[in-house]
Amino acid sequence: MTAMSTGAGSAGAAEITRRLAGICGPSFARLAGAADEVAGRLARWVAVPGGPAAAAEVLRLAARHDLSVVPRGAGTKIDWGAAPARVDIMLDTGRLAGIGHQPAASPVVEVGAGTPLRAVQATLERTGRRLALDPPSPGATLGGVLAADESGPLRHRHGTACAQVVGLRWLDADGELVSAGRSAAELAGAAAPVGLDLGRLFCGSQGGLGVLVSATLRAPAVPATRVWVSRPVWTPLEVHDLIRAVLAADLDPAAVELDLPAAGSPPAPAVAPAAGATSGPPGRPMSAAEAAARANHPAMAGRRADPPPARGSAGELAILLEGGRSEVAERADRLLALLGAAASSADQPPSWWRRYPFAPGDTALRVEAPATDLHAAVYALRDAAGAPLPVRGSAGLGVVHAALPGALPADRVAGILAAVRGVLLARRGRCVVVAAPPAVRRAVDVWGEAAVIPRLREAKDHLDPHRRLAPGRLPGGL
Prior knowledge:
Blueprint: H1 6-11, H2 13-24, E1 29-31, E2 37-38, E3 41-42, E4 45-47, H3 52-64, E5 69-72, E6 89-92, E7 108-112, H4 117-125, H5 142-148, H6 155-158, E8 165-171, E9 177-180, H7 182-188, H8 196-200, E10 211-218, E11 225-233, H9 236-248, E12 255-260, H10 288-295, E13 315-323, H11 325-339, E14 344-346, E15 363-368, H12 374-385, E16 391-394, E17 399-404, H13 410-425, E18 430-435, H14 438-443, H15 453-463
Parallel strand pairs: 4-6, 5-6
Antiparallel strand pairs: 1-4, 2-3, 7-10, 8-9, 8-10, 11-13, 11-14, 12-13, 12-16, 15-17, 15-18, 16-17
């Protein structure tokens, strides 16, 4: 467990708990438990402020006692990325929730950071609108999706969650409310908003730049019709040729997704390893309570737990078409003719759609490359690993996830990463470790080369000069 800072020690743990309870309410502040961790780093306290003003008070308390703060939404991706150097206060955003009142025809909507995405979608659906966001994590909050820069299949047409943001409100390390973007500034009543470029650095920042309060996003109309056209595929090169043909055919796909299973691979565990089988935080074994807590943690949901495919099983390329009924039918017919006799259409997605290929305990990778070079990246991954690996994701954009077995030694994972990153560097791509067992996370650079590091350092120096917000969580150890 992370040692308490000098400031916290002088106030005393009981006194910090009392003050947090005074800010958040007695039922919403407590000492952290076995499941209150961030990428394996245990917290000391959990605070659940009832609104932006209370969240600002938590941050001011942390500043007075030199305590670190890490925001948490639903916890579906709390094991992603680098472990913070310390987690004194875990600031749960569950009560920073709600959907701003907007006219039915409004093209945007303001959403509280702690609002579950599926609640937003259910509310907007009543007015014929939606957020064009479909991340795979069940139960994810909007703030968590933005903090992890998580995207689903609809990214192909609508862009990332970050690209759909038109305004943000957040609290900096000193508890000051900051607005970015015209719409957010109008809603917050701020007179002089900062540019949205700074705000968009929050996407993927893992809570290292501030505590998100709300975001204003585009809310397009729900399409009248959705059709999935699928075709079995066998090799990355075949996928490359098919995607080139699809993208050249002027079919306006909403999503182009790929599932390439690792045929014949052993099944991945459906839950975290049993007590004693895996280390907890550095230096001690995982207790039975921790193992049970992790097995039931939200981060365990939505990840592959299905049986392995039979040897020789095909993969699948699936294309989503959205729009009016007649024009979608016409485009689907053209796509079926283009993909050949093996293709088929359906009004429901494949079973693997919006699901990650990795299971709890795996080393999960995100591979990004130009779509025209994705096949080379997948072949490089296979060569480095010595066998096919499960690959799934937005092949039409060159962004896919892959899984390495959690039992692989850390030095073996490091070697695979080095080989793949070498190939991707020449193709303007990158490979990020999304999640990994503690031993692997300690042994590798989870981010690799990141061109955004200078901009992140500048933003960190401006918004969190004392490094109290999720210290070490950002690329470059920021």
